[in-house]
Amino acid sequence: MALIVQKYGGTSVGSPERIKKVAQRVAKYQEQGHQVVVVVSAMSGETNRLIELAKTIQAQPDPRELDVVISTGEQVTIGLMAMALMQEGLQAKSYTGAQVQILTDSAFTKARILSIDEQSIRTDLANGCVVVVAGFQGMDEEGNITTLGRGGSDTTGVAIAAALRADECQIYTDVDGVYTTDPRVVPEARRLKNITFEEMLEMASLGSKVLQIRAVEFAGKYKVKLRVLSSFSEDFGQEGAGTLITFEEDNKMEQAIISGIAFNRDEAKITVRGVPDKPGIAYQILGPVSDANIDVDIIIQNVGVDGTTDFSFTVHRNEFAKAMDILKNKVQKHIGARDVIGDDKTAKVSVVGVGMRSHVGIASKMFRTLAEEGINIQMISTSEIKISVIIDEKYLELAVRVLHQAFDLDQEIL
Amino acid sequence: MALIVQKYGGTSVGSPERIKKVAQRVAKYQEQGHQVVVVVSAMSGETNRLIELAKTIQAQPDPRELDVVISTGEQVTIGLMAMALMQEGLQAKSYTGAQVQILTDSAFTKARILSIDEQSIRTDLANGCVVVVAGFQGMDEEGNITTLGRGGSDTTGVAIAAALRADECQIYTDVDGVYTTDPRVVPEARRLKNITFEEMLEMASLGSKVLQIRAVEFAGKYKVKLRVLSSFSEDFGQEGAGTLITFEEDNKMEQAIISGIAFNRDEAKITVRGVPDKPGIAYQILGPVSDANIDVDIIIQNVGVDGTTDFSFTVHRNEFAKAMDILKNKVQKHIGARDVIGDDKTAKVSVVGVGMRSHVGIASKMFRTLAEEGINIQMISTSEIKISVIIDEKYLELAVRVLHQAFDLDQEIL
User: Fold this and answer.
1) Taking residues A308-320, what's their average pLDDT?
2) What is the interface pTM, i.e. ipTM, of the complex?
3) Which of A91, A169, A335, A381 could form a disulfide with A161 if both were Cys (CB 3.0 to 4.6 A apart)?
4) Is the peptide bond before A30 cis (omega within 30 degrees of 0)?
């Protein structure tokens, strides 16, 4: 018998029929003797509907009140899920974040979990009850309703699993695991049976979008065994289903050098040229961009020549025009830069793998593979376990395919 | 400066535009120096939508979980209303029933309020804040979410007003007060400036539907000054707007004998004939009806003749077939009754007024008026301050009109 926390996202609970399917899955787990806590998101589309509704009243909705409004999405799902479980003949009981209690800080719309009181859940589980918890939400010390930000339901699942010391936290999504790359681009892409937390962090932040990055961090911190599974597949409960996200130290097997190829289509690059090469310049360039709430991804500054340097970074394509406007009209003259140029027809491709730490030659293999296809590398950025390049977006699929092949990712590893 | 609780129903907050209108009204009250607590319902249609959603999962939704689901309706409105108030430049803060805390018993879907902790609301009001409270909902001692049943938002408004010892509880609705009868039937119907609690109770239960009957009882018990107003009219704050519901003892003026003519179109009558005239028979007839959750309105049993009697009662027209089925198949043979007959083409008309207590001749005037129009009276039921008759439904409008005229209800009273 195991204690399993299962988290189902918005698509998995997107209709009454799907909610019933999830209840049937939970029933099978209980039949096998497991204790199950189900964490659910709002039904797909619901959170956006509520945000739009709020915006018809206030263009910039008050964060506290926005959380009051949008937290209702998950509250509806927990009630419906508990009902569906009862229809399957199970005992079930729902909890809002406040009812659990999931205590958070007071950063409305992006709160962080401080603690979880798991006693009531434990009692219910001991009584044979399936416990249904609203993802994405909590309560601050003053009793205000808070939400954890986009994808926060994953974090709720992991946090509940950590508090209960659950045997496994299963994240159900519309894919059946983490792949070596997107199968729509490379049909030979292979599901990874295991991936390390560090790799998962890089894959998630690089656009794999399977798991919220905070949830992965949280799982790493509290050593929660995390498994990504498809809520649409019929097999469940089997050993080896989905992708298990492991701690590196647990991973005794020979590690593949590269685990996957991540990519992001929506990258736009901006270069500020002829920037005086002096302290504080990076902040003077990125400060106004950040103030405008534009997220910056890769940042590169090369060694300067003759007292000036070029400063480059990438932003989401949707924010390219806004960022260019800020730089040209607010920053360029102020810092005495020569020019600001940009290109929103770029894409990012990354090879990710903990194995690359101890293996030389990954970078050169990557660059040679791209060169052989005539793909020009516009920017390069590296971390301990990944190498990212910015290329012309029209070569994106080609680059992903040739890299996938070059690193033998279509070959099953024992 | 007064402390005013304003309750807005689903139609008054039925769209973002209407929510903004309400916020403008509240702003004007605050400008006049009043402290305002706003109690809101779910946006119109929302509660029904949520109930239907629950029923797609469970034909008979679990009451605890149904309350979890449907309480989100008001929660959305409080957030939106607080935002709308901020847009008007006011400070505002929303509270769910649990956050207030409105403590109820655990009778899910029809809970009763036990106590209200009004301290946080008082603090917010003292700080110049408009407080927005979710109607219809509360929390039991174990922290479960409860709802108060249909129309429960009125009760919340009155209960909050009682807890705060508010100067007035204003119930905003889509009519501008309580009328002598339905103006759609009698164009000369007149808005009552005052009505007593007792009359209001009779009017509400007889189908006037302006106020939930529990709210009126609650207001009477805690001596809350209650005013019914239209949320669509432009005049507000004026003395004498809407209808003030008074305690009889406060009412020094000469009381009109009759305050209004209430009626109900959806009445179906059932008679069990030839019932053995012995103890326990009424329970044997109505027990199975009540067990089937069918509400019974008027009940009449006349003096028996030769050891048998006829037992009559009325039910809502929608439940006529179900009730007839129960009586014919479960009750008739069991109690040895001769026959069960029924008619679902009937209606109820009532004259209501505290003045009739001390005036003779009201009943005879009513019966004569109907007789003069050739309207046959099928059943009669009376209380201290009302006389109800069941008649053929085709005469309903005619009966209401002639009674309205006979009792001079179109004449303004000083």
Assistant:
1) 91
2) 0.78
3) A169
4) no
User: How close is the nearest chain A Cα to the Cα of B226, in Å?
Assistant: 29
The pTM for the full model equals: 0.79
Q: Considering only CA atoms, which of A200, A239, A241, A236 is closest in space to residue A217?
A: A200
Token digits for A159? 């946090």
The residue-averaged pLDDT of A47-73 equals: 97
- CA-nearest residue to B77 within chain A is A69
Neighbours of B105 (CB within 10 A): 14
Q: In whole angstroms, give the CA distance from residue A228 to residue A216.
A: 11
Question: Which helix (H) or strand (E) is B122 found in, with range?
Answer: helix B119-126
CA proximity to A213, closest of A295, A313, A99: A295
Residues of B near A (Cβ–Cβ under 8 Å) read 16, 19-20, 50, 53-54, 56-58, 61-62, 64-69, 71-72, 75-76, 78-80, 82-84, 86-87, 92-94, 96, 98-99, 143-145
- Could you read off the pLDDT of B124-165 as tens digits, one per residue? 999 999 999 999 999 999 999 999 987 799 999 999 999 999
Q: Which of A209, A263, A258 is nearest to A397 (CA)?
A: A263
Rounded Cα–Cα distance for residues B189 and B178 (Å): 10
Q: Report which of B170, B5, B193 is spatially closest to residue B95, judged by C-alpha positions.
A: B5
Structure tokens at A379: 């920017």
Shortest Cα distance, chain A CAs vs residue B56, angstroms? 7
DSSP characters over A270-315: EEEEEEE--TTHHHHHHHHHHHTT--EEEEEEPPPBTTEEEEEEEE
CB atoms within 10 A of CB A233: 14
Strand order in the sheet with A145-147: A113-116, A102-104, A137-139, A145-147
Express each pLDDT in A157-196 by its tens digit.
999 999 999 999 999 987 788 888 888 889 998 888 888 8
Q: Which residues on A lie below 8 Å from B50 (Cβ)? A: 76
- The angle, 0 to 180 degrees and rounded to 10, between the axes of the packed helices A152-164 and A213-222 is 10
Tell me the β-bridge partners of B9: none
Highest mean pLDDT among B81-85, B149-153, B251-255, B262-266: B81-85
Q: Which amino acid is at A204?
A: A
DSSP string, A232-260: S-S--S-TT-SEEEE-GGG--SPPPS--E
- Indicate the average pLDDT of chain A: 89
Q: Is B108 helix (H, G, I), strand (E, B) or coil?
A: coil
What is the per-residue pLDDT for A357? 73
Best A22, A80, A106 residue to mutate vs chain B (most B CBs within 10 Å): A80
Angle at B175 between CA B169 and CA B181, to 5 degrees: 110
The verdict on a CB contact (< 8 Å) between A58 and B20 is: no
- Residue A387: partners with Cβ closer than 8 Å, 6 or more residues away: A350, A351, A356, A362, A363, A366, A380, A381
Q: Give me the domains of chain A, ranges plus CATH numbers.
A: 3-249 (3.40.1160.10), 261-406 (3.30.2130.10)
Q: What burial letters (b/e) apply to A116-139, b meaning 16+ CB within 10 Å?
A: bebebbbebbeeebbbbbbbbbbb
